[in-house]
Amino acid sequence: MSTDFDQQAFRQFERDGYSGVAEGYAKKIALVSAQTNDAILNAVNAKTGVELLDIACGPGLLSAGAIERGATVSSLDFAPNMVAAARSRCPDADVQEGDAEDLPFDVGRFDAVVCSLGILHFPNPEVAVDEVFRVLKPGGHYAFSCWTPPDSNPLMGLVVGSIAAHGTMEIDLPAGPPLFRFGDPAECENILGNAGFEDISVTECPLHWPSASGQTFLNELHTSGARLGPMIAKQSDENRPAVERAIIQGAEKYQAPEGIRIPSMVNIATGRKP
User: Fold this and answer.
1) CATH number of the domain to which 186 belongs
2) Is 11 part of any domain?
3) Model confidence over 84-118: pLDDT tens digits?
4) Which pTM does this prediction carry?
């Protein structure tokens, strides 16, 4: 896979962006992604006696779930404010600021490694997966999740589709790897297989984004993410109202008795180190 973009600019943008939205992320996207936490932890058999690493831990909800199961947890994130939030939520975990492509851990330390919605933020995901393989014990398991693409993911279809239809995707943001690359099961299988993993599987896992209203959903996009929010905010003065109106109206189509519930989907990819 090509890395023909400024990797340092992308890495810095993501680090600064997610540190800046850490509080909003914890209140929304982390809670949305937590709907898949049990599936991820089940995939790596997280339980008492398991030493587990949570990469791109964010505010620490997945780490907290592993601790509740009795695992000994180390957590890592590149965004300082995410690290602070995870330390506050998980005082029993060893939470470090660090780079997924250069893990500060010895060879063969962990029984399990997990990464929820993190792999899309790595400039070189192949390097990151090789690092996971390195720090796993033989027989250890790895599981990561990633959004499926807009054509099979109503949440992403609504946001990306509204931008594409009423504005432009060509926004002055640092270029990075394809956002939905690992929405393709074959890409998940290839990156794991090339790193040396066996017993590879990729399964879809549904989740939903709950919100009080279409306007609230739009506000949450601005305050909880480092890329989709800026993509909306950086639209021209001429286009932005139409983009925002389409997002609000689209969200309101998912009205349920308890409020708006926008369906979404992630892939969960797993593999075992032989």
Assistant:
1) 3.40.50.150
2) yes
3) 999 999 999 999 999 999 999 999 999 999 999 99
4) 0.95
